[in-house]
Amino acid sequence: MSVRNTPRQGRFVTFEGIDGAGKSSQIAAASKWASQAGWELVCSREPGGTPLGEKLRELLLHEPMHLETEALLMFAARREHLAQIIEPALARGAFVLCDRFSDATYAYQHGGRGLDAAKFAALEQWVHPTRQPDLTFVFDVSPDIAAARLVRGRADADKFEREQQDFFQRVRQAYLDRAASSGGRIVVIDAGQSIEAVCAAVLACLQERFG
Ligand code: TMP
Fold first, then answer.
1. Label partner for 30 (CA 20 to 30 A): which of 11, 66, 170, 197?
2. CA of 1 to the centre of ligand 1 (A)
3. CA nearest 15: which of 123, 132, 103, 141?
4. Residue 150: what pLDDT?
5. In terms of pTM, does the model score above 0.85?
6. Which one of 78, 128, 160 would you pick to mutate in the ligand 1 pocket, going by the greatest count of ligand atoms within 8 A of its CB?
7. Mean pLDDT on 142-148
8. Is residue 104 within 6 Å of ligand 1 at its C-beta?
9. Which atom of ligand 1 is nearest to the CA of 48?
10. Is the pLDDT at 99 greater than 90, yes or no?
């Protein structure tokens, strides 16, 4: 009898929230969890994650542009990211952790900027018709707590970080609305708690879904 060595199914987990919600420490904790659980770990981010994507990130975060250009470049960078990094890693059976994905476009470009969500549904259908994250964390926090964490107003703040509280309130609400209709894919975590409490919630969820 021959035994076929099939790689285990890859997993795709994304991290979302308004700027200053505290994703970075949670991504670090989740990375440690996945490595200790024996997964090949791939950590990436959007916009970015590839040489071309990182160039687009620089433009997206610092160059003034039409709002639809911004949305289209987000999806262009994502197309490259899926082709170069995400899909090959998932095919190898890796655990892919990504700092933001398409939920961010809905939250920021639809919720924040007010662009029509139907356009993003069409772009999503084009760029990743059969791919969605297996799990998405939304770190939910009020814009004033997030602003205090970011120390907004610092000289090197990017285009998004310079936005006002009402922009982040709309982004936050768009994340919550999307979570409510996600059928459990998007898990909202209260990021106003201590880092330790947020981390415990993240690890418990990873263990329950993939442990
Ligand atoms: P980061 O600071 O969390 O790395 O994200 C970069 C910024 O890009 C952040 O302010 C959110 C924004 N963004 C969008 O507006 N739309 C998107 O689709 C993505 C991926 C990020």
1. 170
2. 51
3. 103
4. 83
5. yes
6. 160
7. 94
8. yes
9. 20
10. yes
Report which of 100, 54, 58 is spatially closest to residue 77, judged by C-alpha positions.
54
Q: Please work out whether the CB of residue 45 comes within 6 Å of at least one atom of ligand 1.
A: yes
What are the beta bridge partners of residue 97?
13, 43
Residue 161 has pLDDT above 90, yes or no: yes
Instruction: Grade residue 151 by pLDDT with cuts at 50, 70 and 90.
Output: confident
- CB atoms near residue 11 (< 10 Å): 20
Distance of CA 155 to the CA centre of its chain: 25
Is residue 150 lining ligand 1, measured as CB closer than 6 Å?
Answer: no
CB of 78 within 6 A of ligand 1: the answer is: no
pLDDT of residue 152: 54
pLDDT of residue 156: 85
* 153-170 mean pLDDT: 90
Evaluate if residue 4 carries a pLDDT over 70: no
User: What is the 3 state secondary structure string of the chain?
Assistant: CCCCCCCCCCEEEEEEECCCCCHHHHHHHHHHHHHHCCCCEEEEECCCCCHHHHHHHHHHHHCCCCHHHHHHHHHHHHHHHHHHHHHHHHHHCCEEEEECCHHHHHHHHHHHCCCCHHHHHHHHHHHCCCCCCCEEEEEECCHHHHHHHHCCCCCCCCCCCCCCHHHHHHHHHHHHHHHHCCCCCEEEEECCCCHHHHHHHHHHHHHHHHC
Which residue, 195, 208, 179, is CA-closest to 14? 179
